[in-house]
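Fig. S4 source data, part A: sequence.
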Amino acid sequence: MCDLLDSQPPPAEKKLSRMKKLRRTLSESFGRIALKKDDNGFDEICVTKMSTRNCQGMDSVIKPLDTIPEDKKVRVQRTQSTFDPFEKPNNQVKRVHSENNACINFKTSSTGKESPKIRRHSSPSSPTSPKFGKADSYEKLEKLGEGSYATVYKGKSKVNGKLVALKVIRLQEEEGTPFTAIREASLLKGLKHSNIVLLHDIIHTKETLTLVFEFVHTDLCQYMDKHPGGLHPDNVKLFLFQLLRGLSYIHQRYILHRDLKPQNLLISDTGELKLADFGLARAKSVPSHTYSNEVVTLWYRPPDVLLGSTEYSTCLDMWGVGCIFVEMIQGVAAFPGMKDIQDQLERIFLVLGTPNEDSWPGVHSLPHFKPDRFTQYSAKNLRQAWNKLSYVNHAEDLASKLLQCFPKNRLSAQAALSHEYFSDLPPRLWELTDMSSIFSVPNVRLQAEGGESMKVFGKNNIYGKGLSNIKH
């Protein structure tokens, strides 16, 4: 055993042998690096793929390019030519990239000094270029409206040149950011649907919070004002279908809009309807939570909320849908209360009948329901109040199923989309993806209103003005 140990070379000689072997291996590997002159007299270094055939134990350090995972490869930009101010005309620097070699060309002058650096293409993320999230990335064109805490402008994006609506919310030092603005921004960030206004960007400064929306030309209120006496029946159907489509999307995500009214339904120049102004919207918790009854503009507020109920669900929005449906067909508001909540309730009961425990289980337990305060009315057919409902097949039936005093009797958005009223629409409308417009289906388009072709009506779209009115 001792003889064997003595026969081994000394440690110093063994170390020297390993170094010689490594030097020989490196020499062979780098022997392929050649220095030569190009056609113009400049030095050109061409580095070919390094051989590792004889590099035992070094595979973990030096690997051929084609064995490196795709996501780890350094990509070489393929460029036909690169401008250098010191080059002769038409003198191009060729860059070669192949599986087995990568030629890196650089130039030196006869004095050995480096020539100026090759100019690189400017990056879109350059500090001087417009960026999303920056106030100076948008140009204000004109004021569209002003509310209690926000001003809305028509604007233009300097990033992509598209028109936008800038909802500039003023921040009070004492009060901070209005909760409605926080709620609207947080909800809209997660909603992507062709019938819901798209939130492009959020800009926050010390003085303001700006919500940047897609620009939509007008709203349903202005559209109806432009065409008094009721809209074309086919257009009513398309608008209502889009409204229900957008509501079904948010209701499936347990979100209530809580402020449906014509002013909050935007209409594009192609007729696309979009839900807007989510300042009063809430994400409904499960099980049921207690909410404020100070929601929904008076004319579109359901009787259960008017009577003080604070426990409600998606049926809250469906009452508003019924009111808007009637208004589009008839040309006037369904229940235009002129004084107060009492007057509003009287107008509702005049058509639908004064409720009792038989027609509305639990109505007597609502805070503001006092039987002796209301005139006793019997229910009427809706066509007696709004005669134009009888002109359209199944319109009265759909309206009656939406305008139910007892909340649980109201049709849901999803069920309403399957109502016979929509039976003559193309079946493909029910197969569209969330971000697909109904107008992407052939032959689906708005009809001319009163002999007038569809065009942009009005310019004062206020995206809710930053103000959700409690009374009309």
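Fig. S4 source data, part B ends here. The mean pLDDT is 75.
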